[in-house]
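Sequence design from tokenized structure. All designs in this work follow the same two-part layout: the structure record, then the generated sequence. An example of the structure record is given first.
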């Protein structure tokens, strides 16, 4: 088991593409860290640098106390699971799992045999060991690919979108199995995905990445409650947080956040913002809005209704800006109607309009730990 540290790590391809632009990440011993971000933000490149499959243009990567920048992949004690499984089609599952181990001279035949039996047992694929990849389902292939990493007993596990080729139901099942596997093995793991649900459900902590940079590294609930900027706020949570142009005003000692079509009174306990902010943006999650019986504080003109079973998703506009609401599913709402909404005043987020950095979160004490500002 080991820690991982990335310090000011940069990856430039040729001279004109900076895929990773100076990232710092510290992963604890035995931790499951998920790196999440949109396609092209530099996640795979980061993982490939950790595995030694890409060189590092600048900065340092450490496993434990050792800088491993120049160490070849085979000497890093790292195993990687790829999105496309990367299995040899003409070899059985067992051969795929052990390929290269016997010839490496590092393992005896007995050790290899025992490692395969253990990994197969852990992953419940003992009956499949004689089959070739073409005779396995997607989920079974993924298990074999994971088995291949386990037999090598690596200190560090790297996973690059390992579930994205599976159908939705299997993805959810395999997600739970990966969580169990990690709890059992306690290997330091870095897992890359573009799927925020996967990130939130699997990660001890989640690093949100955009444009080659880390935006925030935190526990899932902290990311959701205390996003450090608008990017994280909108990336985490589904449907995305609503963000509307807003200003802060003061009226007779009471503070309001207001904009086109809404005026919400702020809770008293928030003394840490200036009383007058003219150009800001307010963030309100769809689940923090409710359709009110009486007069609310936001008027939504409904353009789409989507019954989701556990909620009714309403989409519409407020003063020309789009807004969605997770409403009570048994409420009758028709397209074209204007409904009055109330927002939970303890669940508002205020962002700078120009930089997108958070100004403040109105939540009071949902979490004792404040957000960790990322350098
Ligand atoms: P992600 O995994 O987040 O989708 P990647 O790390 O694969 O992103 O890619 C980050 C950026 O680097 C993208 O703009 C991509 O086009 C670029 N890139 C990745 N690999 C190479 C390469 N071998 N040569 C040039 N550019 C690359």
């Amino acid at each position: 088991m080991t820690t991982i540290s990335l310090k000011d790590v940069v990856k430039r391809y040729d001279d004109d593409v900076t895929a990773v632009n100076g990232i710092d990440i510290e992963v604890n011993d035995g931790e499951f860290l998920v790196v999440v971000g949109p396609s092209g933000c530099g996640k795979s490149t980061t993982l490939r640098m950790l595995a030694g499959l890409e060189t590092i243009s600048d900065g340092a990567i450490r496993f434990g106390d050792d800088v491993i920048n120049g160490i070849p992949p085979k000497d890093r004690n790292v195993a990687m699971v790829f999105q496309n499984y990367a299995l040899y089609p003409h070899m059985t599952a067992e051969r795929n799992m052990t390929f290269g181990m016997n010839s490496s001279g590092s393992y005896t035949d007995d050790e290899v045999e025992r490692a395969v039996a253990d990994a197969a047992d852990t992953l419940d694929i003992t009956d499949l060991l004689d089959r070739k990849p073409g005779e396995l389902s997607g989920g079974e292939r993924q298990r074999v690919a994971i088995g291949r990493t386990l037999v090598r007993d690596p200190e560090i596990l790297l996973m690059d979108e390992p579930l994205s080729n599976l159908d939705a139901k299997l993805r959810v099942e395999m997600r739970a199995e990966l969580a169990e596997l990690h709890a059992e093995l306690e290997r330091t793991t870095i897992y890359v995905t573009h799927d925020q649900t996967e990130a939130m459900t699997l990660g001890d902590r989640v690093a949100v990445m955009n444009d080659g940079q880390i935006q925030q590294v935190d526990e899932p609930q902290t990311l959701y409650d205390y996003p450090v900027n608008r990017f994280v706020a909108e990336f985490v949570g589904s449907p995305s947080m609503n963000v509307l142009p807003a200003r802060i005003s003061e009226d007779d000692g009471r503070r309001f956040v207001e904009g086109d079509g809404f005026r919400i009174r702020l809770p008293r306990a928030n003394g840490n913002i200036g009383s007058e902010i003219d150009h800001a943006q307010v963030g309100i999650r769809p689940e923090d809005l409710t359709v009110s019986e009486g007069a609310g504080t936001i008027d939504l003109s409904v353009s789409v209704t989507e019954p989701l079973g556990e909620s009714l998703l309403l989409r519409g506009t407020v003063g020309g800006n789009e807004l969605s609401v997770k409403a009570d599913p048994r409420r009758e709402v028709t397209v074209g109607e204007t409904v009055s909404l109330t927002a939970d005043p303890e669940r508002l987020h205020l962002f700078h309009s120009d930089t997108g950095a958070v100004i403040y979160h109105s939540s009071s004490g949902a979490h004792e730990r404040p957000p960790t500002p990322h350098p």
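The pocket of adenosine-5'-diphosphate is lined by residues 13, 17, 19, 37, 39-45 (CB under 6 Å). We note this feature because it recurs in several other targets discussed in the main text.
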